[in-house]
Amino acid sequence: MSFNNGIAASPRRQGGPGIRQIGRHSGMALLKVRNLTVAVGKRTHLADIVDALSFDLNRGQCLGIVGESGSGKSTAAMAIMGLLDGKSLEMSGSVVFDGTELTDLTPREFRRLQGSDIAMIFQDPMSSLNPVLRIGDQITECVLAHHRSSKKDAWDKSVDVLKQVGMPDPVGMMQRYPHQLSGGQRQRVMIAMAIIFKPRLLIADEPTTALDLTIQAQILELLKALSRDLDMGLILITHDLGVVSQMCDEVIVLYSGRDVERGPTQEVLEHPKHPYTIGLLGAHPSLDAEDAMLTPISGAPPSIWRRPSGCAFRDRCPQAEAMCADQVPELATVGHASHQAACLIYGGHVSPEGETA
Ligand SMILES: Nc1ncnc2c1ncn2[C@@H]1O[C@H](COP(=O)(O)OP(=O)(O)OP(=O)(O)O)[C@@H](O)[C@H]1O
Ligand SMILES: [Mg+2]
User: Fold this and answer.
1) What's this model's pTM, rounded to 2 decimal places?
2) pLDDT tens-digit profile of 301-343?
3) Pocket of ligand 1 (CB under 6 A)
4) Does the residue 258 lie in any domain?
């Protein structure tokens, strides 16, 4: 079976193998995502950007989603947040937040949740802040959009939240424009706007990528403390395995829109099974082994329109065999009970008809 033109629905979407779960108390999960699929294109010519992603997230838990550029991380996040561009992208699957099916909500109902119960820190703070509005006006506008309160109260609440995220001189910052702030300060403004209503779910999309290591550590520490203090579920999107190791209880490794490995962070990072995860770890610098050589993964991820048949990673995989060209690997348990990898080496073969072999 070929996935390269995206016309054929994937075995996962056809409801083949069972839903895989992540999260320790799936019965009481804050967020349940099932078979989340986002496709682009016209009805006769679709390609999956995100392919049948499923996971659970509990309050107080941090889930990392990691993968190379273009693997579908931000698209998955935007789909969960109800922020996809519905004109060009088609979404299917289920997203249940605290018992509510979000895909059934009207745009108005969704807007009520966005920013209050569920919030997102966007990948690029500069393009997410309005360049011609002062920081204070932007935060108070956000408060007034969700809360009936006086301008003075909204202003005071905005100063308080800037203090909460460790902003130096919060009153002075309120008067400044975004371009007058450093990258770290802008990121703190984004976090402040995201947490102002103490959301139960926060999605942080590459919140520290553009920052130097000291500021990165401060921002991550801040997110960790907020998650703990507010008992928030946190989804942290990153391409940095060091960040995952420091922050996340569980991790999902995405490759070309599919989760190829997942499980408890320590287990996955210490005993990686999928050749892609092994490759990512080999390409990641480690401070413990100063003289260790970095081994980049050869080649580049495929375009969503030209995925190879079978395993999408096979063209770059040092362990690829003939069978990888015509069989789609499905997640299978590897070692630890909730540690799974989608590689034919570990079984869990899926026939083109979507039946687990
Ligand atoms: N509206 C859209 N129309 C067409 N293609 C899109 C659209 N949005 C995203 N894509 C494509 O989907 C793929 C995944 O994009 P996405 O932004 O989710 O990746 P990412 O994993 O967040 O990457 P990065 O690490 O660079 O942020 C890319 O190939 C991108 O070009
Ligand atoms: Mg992204």
Assistant:
1) 0.87
2) 999 999 999 999 999 999 999 999 988 899 999 987 799 999 9
3) 40, 49, 67, 69-75, 85, 88-89, 123, 239, 304
4) yes
